[in-house]
Amino acid sequence: MKKRKKHYSIMLSMMLVTSGLYFAPVNLTSQVKAATQNLADPSTKAFDQKVIARISAERIYKDIHFFSETIGPRVTGTEGEERAAEYIKERLLSYGYKVETQEFSVPDKMIGHLHTSDHNEVLVNIPAGSAATPNEGVTAKLFNAGLGKVTDFTVEATGKIALISRGEITFKEKVDNAVAAGAIGVLIYDNINQPGPLNPSIGGNVPVPVGGISKVSGEALLQDVAAQSKTVTLNVNRIENAKSQNIIATRAPNKGKNHDILHVSAHIDSVPFAAGANDNASGTAVALELANVLKSYPIDKELRFVFVGAEEIGLVGSEYYVSQLSQEEVGRSIANFNMDMVGTAWENATAIYMNTLDGKANIVTDTALATAQRIGTPSQLVLYQRGSSDHVSFHDAGIPAVNFIRREPGTANLEPYYHTPLDKIEHISLERLKEAGDLVGASVYSLIRK
Ligand code: BES
Ligand code: ZN
């Protein structure tokens, strides 16, 4: 692996934090200098070496490959998510952990399929509130309804599926206008180029099936199907009584009881149509490798790995996990290290952000900064105020929590592949996986080691 010039700048908002205020991260030049000097002769301790010498980026990469390319999308409540959970469980058992599958219900949702009479498949998102179709779907000609305004419809729309462009009026208004004109279904296509299908949100229930598709798909349907009076078939099914699960691996010290608990978490689900290599096979696979490396060293705290389901539908799995902790367990919980999107190769994502819900430092950020100094983590660490991942659930339960995530420094931008079908293994960096594993692994070990 290419050895990068060790650029070491730590961005902190310590002073602002102690004064109770939070602003954008401040670069403490003196710390940067001190840290840069350390790098010439990293003060990595023997206990850090025990961890980082054993963390294998190749093993992490292979697991990401399995999750993102072999399984593919791991949408909440689907077989893909369950398969990932089973794989993780087997692995953790093989490492000797006590492993629990914690199952929970997820809300009903709609899924859809769209194909043309020429058997071309079109990726489609179905919004909550869409009507379902009979099993065979609805088959109809398309009506080009422009932007879906009242004046865009004619009597020709009756009995057809209205094909409507995004823009100018709300999705709900477009659907209402189509229904009023006698359309039996609605397809809304994007007006900007995005890799995945549009996700229209229509508010309440409507009496016809509704789907969102990409700009490219919409324009192709206009040219091909609508122009030549071919048909499309839209199937919409309600998925009911779906289950998701958290996989929890525990390791307690040999002696005594009521030890402090440290939770390492990563979500295993992805959004639809995304292989989720970075979001979040990366965090999942790094956590699995940490479970491997930390499986047998003597420890004086309880270590839990929580592989979380149903994150992408609103942190459902992690909320369930913390809701099942007793008050006593919450009281013993000292930290949550959450990894979500730690492996992107996107060149601008040169910083490791430590997102906390309140933007304040805590035991996790302090420990990670101290570890980064000792081991010479090449990337900047940035303390930043942000929710949007499972650390929120731990924080809400009163447990100091951090989401480790790679972003572009300054802008805090995420990689452009985020939540798209482009989130694939080719945009994963072995070097950055190793960096995240070393940082979080050595931090965790520094807290739990005997
Ligand atoms: N992997 C992202 C994490 C993330 C963190 C995204 C910070 C953006 C900013 C996560 O899986 C995600 O997409 N979260 C959702 C919110 C969640 C509550 C469904 C999001 O940010 O849209
Ligand atoms: Zn995520």
What features would you describe in this structure?
Residues 1-24 form the signal peptide. This is DUF4910 domain-containing protein. It holds the Pfam family Peptidase_M28. Keywords: Signal. Residues 246-442 form the Peptidase M28 domain. Helix 4 crosses helix 13 (430-448). The chain is built from 13 helices and 17 strands. 32% of the residues lie in helices and 23% in strands. It has a ten-stranded mixed sheet, sandwiched between helices. A seven-stranded mixed sheet has the order 5-4-10-6-7-8-9, with helices on both faces. With 450 residues, it is α/β, with parallel strands linked by helices. The chain folds into two domains: 2-107 and 242-448, Zn peptidases (Aminopeptidase, 3-Layer(aba) Sandwich), CATH 3.40.630.10; 109-239, 3-Layer(bba) Sandwich (Glucose Oxidase, domain 1), CATH 3.50.30.30. Bound molecules: ligand BES and zinc ion.
Give short descriptive properties of this protein.
32% helix, seven-stranded mixed sheet, Peptidase_M28, Aminopeptidase, 450 residues, alpha/beta, single chain, binds zinc ion, Glucose Oxidase, domain 1, signal, PA_domain, 13 helices
Structure summary:
This protein is of the alpha/beta class and 450 residues long.
Domain count? 2
Q: Which architecture of the largest domain does the CATH hierarchy give at level 2?
A: 3-Layer(aba) Sandwich
The topology string of helices and strands comes to: EHEHHHHEEEEEHEEHEEEHEHHEEHEHEH
Mean pLDDT: 91
- State the CATH superfamily name of the largest domain: Zn peptidases
Classified by CATH, the class of the largest domain is: Alpha Beta
The small molecules bound here are: ligand BES, zinc ion
Major β-sheet annotation: 10 strands, mixed
% residues in beta strands: 15-25%
InterPro entries: M28_fam (IPR045175), PA_dom_sf (IPR046450), PA_domain (IPR003137), Peptidase_M28 (IPR007484)
Signal peptide: 1-24
Domain PA: 138-221
Protein name: DUF4910 domain-containing protein
